């Protein structure tokens, strides 16, 4: 029974994606046609069309999978242990010092090689 529901969902998913593409195309064309209208009205209309297109896209199997992935990612972000202000400051200072030291070393090496090549070339 699940395979029948999945195959019907797959058939309707194609139609739903066509509707999403049609809505996006209508938004682009409508924005061009009504270019003389106020920017505020056009932005509001585009936001409404984008909302409807997003809602239709979420009704598809791939849209539902994306929404599930988004919710799981949000839950994982809550589990992250963020560094303290002191750790962040120390790490930033270490990275800055290392970048400066490596930059000076590369500058010195470049100057040495440039001096050597100019001495050989004459």
Give a verbal description of the structure.
By secondary structure, the protein is mainly alpha-helical. The chain has 4 helices and no strands. The chain has helices at 2-33, 39-58, 61-79, 85-121. The relative contact order is 0.06. Residues 1-5 have low confidence and may be disordered.
Continuous helix count? 4
Percent of sequence in beta strands: under 5%
Flag low-confidence runs: 1-5
What's the structural domain tally?
2
Through-space gap between termini: 85 Å
Gyration radius (Cα, Å) is: 28 Å
Largest sheet, strands/sense/barrel: none
Mean pLDDT: 90
Structural class: mainly alpha
- Give the fraction of residues assigned to helices: over 70%
The total strand number stands at 0
Global outline = elongated
Function: Essential subunit of the Sec protein translocation channel SecYEG. Clamps together the 2 halves of SecY. May contact the channel plug during translocation.
InterPro entries: SecE_bac, SecE_sf, Translocase_SecE/Sec61-g
Organism: Amphritea japonica ATCC BAA-1530
Subcellular location: Membrane
List keywords for this structure.
single chain, 122 residues, mainly alpha, 4 helices, disordered N terminus, transmembrane, transmembrane helix, cell membrane
């Amino acid at each position: 029974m699940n395979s029948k529901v999945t195959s019907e969902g797959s058939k309707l998913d194609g139609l739903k994606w066509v509707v999403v593409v049609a809505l996006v195309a209508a938004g682009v064309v409508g924005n061009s046609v009504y270019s003389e209208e106020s920017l505020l009205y056009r932005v509001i209309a585009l936001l409404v069309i984008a909302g409807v297109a997003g809602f239709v896209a979420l009704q598809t199997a791939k849209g539902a999978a994306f929404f599930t992935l988004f919710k799981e990612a949000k839950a994982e972000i809550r589990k992250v242990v963020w560094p303290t202000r002191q750790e962040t400051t120390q790490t930033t200072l270490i990275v800055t010092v290392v970048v400066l030291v490596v930059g000076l070393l590369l500058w010195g090496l470049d100057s040495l090689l440039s001096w050597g090549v100019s001495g050989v070339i004459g």
